[in-house]
Amino acid sequence: LDNILIKLIANGIDFVRLGRRHKIHPTVYPFAAEVVCSEFSMVTQLEKFYTSKKVMATTCHGTGHAALSRHSFDVCIIDEASQITLPMCLGALRLAETFVLVGDQYQLPPLVQSSLAREGGMSVSMFRRLAEAHPAAVTNLQHQYRMHKDVMLLSNTLA
Asked: Exposed, middle or buried, 152 (CB in 10 Å: 0-12/13-18/19+)?
């Protein structure tokens, strides 16, 4: 998430980052809600601030943040969606009209500790369910950009 936000900073795109301080990259931290909103003393100031933002960034765990409770978005993008449980995905998707799930259904599934939950299907991500039910809606990336350059070269060559 923060790697994407660093690119937004470089391109002058305004956003607010929700989340815990120790989970936010130092470059992104000046855009964190706790920093930007620290001088607000009235709820109306907070409401005005949050409604002025076109981009609000958080992890799926952060979608319960109070700032999002009365907010809706045009698009919700979930990265690494193949590693997120269905309920966690739904928590984020409820905030948007359209969504994009990014991931690889053949890599790591969601980590589910409860054997009962695993038996009930919780270890199968929403991403995988949708990819299998609607294969025509899946688009494969043609180039890999985030890994070590030698591994990336091999991956791009084999693709």
From this structure: middle
Structure tokens at 8: 């937004």
Q: Is 103 left (phi over 0), alpha (psi -120 to 50) or beta?
A: left
Q: What is d(CA 146, CA 86) in angstroms, rounded to the nearest whole number?
A: 25
| Per-residue model confidence as pLDDT tens digits over 96-147 | 999 999 988 888 899 999 999 999 999 999 999 999 999 999 998 776 666 6
- Answer yes or no: are the C-beta atoms of 131 and 138 closer than 8 Å: yes
- Beta strands of the chain (E only): which ranges? 16-17, 56-57, 73-78, 96-101
CA proximity to 124, closest of 138, 137, 140, 111:
111
Structure confidence at residue 65 (pLDDT): 87
* Run of H or E residues at 14: none
Distance CA 44, CA 91 (A): 26
Taking a C-beta distance cutoff of 8 angstroms, is the pair 36, 16 a contact? yes
Residues in the chain, total: 159
